[in-house]
Amino acid sequence: MTDDAPDPLTGLLTPDELDRYLTGQVTAEDGIRLSALSAEHPWFADQLQAIRIAVAEDAHWSGILSTPEAWAQLRQRVQLSSAPHATTHATANGATQERSSSRAHLSAAHSRRWATVAGAAASIAVALLLMIGIRSGTGRSGAHVQEYRTAAGQRSTIHLADGSTVVLGPATSLRVSSRHVDLTGQAYFIVAARQDRPFVVRTTNAVIRVLGTRFFIRRYSEDHFSRVAVEEGRVAIGVRHDGAAPPPRTVISANMVGEVSDSGVTVDTGVGMRAYTEWTHGVLVFQRVTLRDVVAELGRAYGAAIEVPDTTLAGERMRLDVSTTQQSLPNVLDLIGEAIGAHYTKRGETFVLSPGRAKGHLAPGHATPSPSPQPEKEYGR
């Protein structure tokens, strides 16, 4: 594609619209328009996603994307096709479906990684476009405010305007105003370092202040405390107060977990991070967690209703790894039942786990009950 050829994206969007999308400033109207364009033009989501990733990986492009010269350089790097042409692919029922063969082709040094991105770009981009711009406005200080949400069974990666990245867990909402965010649910943060401007996260009862680090925060509405796990760097945590309050003073670093309740902060050291990071790759890790909390997490991850009416069964603790991208929910519940002597039934759309094995047994899976219950804080509660 030559530098003077028309850009396939700017033919549909203005440079300002593209700039707002790439810098995380999409309005509600933008979100609707981007979603409609993705549905109308099968190649659009792929190419928009490829450019977004290029910009996220190289801060050089930030702030100059509205100039023709910058777009020409970016097109050359990503090597976008200017004239996508349609090919047909057979669907499961034998019908044919039109799909664009236009892809973002990268230099040899990046081709393998970007081939994977391009293959999933359409579904990822459409989901992102539908989520971005749910609500956009101005905060009390005059700063731009953006809200992001995921439903049960969804997770999403968001690139903020300051270069930070946030992975949202299922049933999570995030409200962003510059480097101040409010979180309900769970999220994994990779914060871009800014010595002059700390990054601040607030839950309903906690304040977390960082300069640049990787960490996890969880506080769903039903949780009894906010949990903060640090994978890299240091963060300061404290109890949130309405109105003026001193900055958080409890500092935790790598492999430490802080729990913030209304009465104060407790800290655990030498904690493994798998349970707090693997979910970003589609793997839920439970380590001596009660079945009550396991099914709550599975319900959010799979977007399903799961009940355990028997309180004794609900209190069973277990160790369990679940790949939500490779294992179906019925398969996971079968493995749990095999491990703890239980079975599930369906009542309408609700899965119900009850004591006692069902007729016939599966081969032992990867779910194993904990040897003996010991006093221990419950996962996320």
Separate helix tally: 9
Determine the fraction of residues in helical runs and give it as a percent range: 25-40%
Radius of gyration: 23 Å
Number of domains: 3
Shape: globular
**Given the helix and strand composition, which structural class is it?**
alpha+beta
Described by strand count, sense and barrel closure, the largest sheet is: 14 strands, mixed
What's the CATH class of the largest domain, please? Answer: Mainly Beta
Unreliable spans are 1-6, 81-136, 361-366, 368-381
- Second CATH tier, the architecture of the largest domain: Sandwich
What does it look like?
The chain is built from nine helices and 22 strands. The chain is α+β, with helices and mostly antiparallel strands. Strands 3, 4, 5, 6, 7, 8, 9, 10, 11, 12, 13, 14, 15 and 16 form a 14-stranded mixed sheet that branches. The radius of gyration is 23 Å and the shape is globular. The relative contact order is 0.07.
Any descriptors?
381 residues; Jelly Rolls; Phage tail protein beta-alpha-beta fold; 14-stranded mixed beta sheet; 9 helices; 31% strand; globular
Give a brief description.
This protein has nine helices and 22 strands. By secondary structure, the protein is of the alpha+beta class. The chain is globular.
SSE blueprint and pairings:
Layout: H1 15-22, H2 28-40, H3 42-57, H4 68-78, E1 86-90, E2 96-100, H5 111-131, E3 135-138, E4 144-149, E5 156-159, E6 165-168, E7 173-177, E8 180-190, E9 199-202, E10 206-210, E11 214-219, E12 226-232, E13 234-239, E14 250-253, E15 256-261, E16 264-268, H6 274-277, E17 283-290, H7 291-302, E18 305-307, H8 311-314, E19 317-323, H9 329-340, E20 342-347, E21 350-355, E22 368-369
Helix pairs in contact: 2-3, 2-5, 3-5
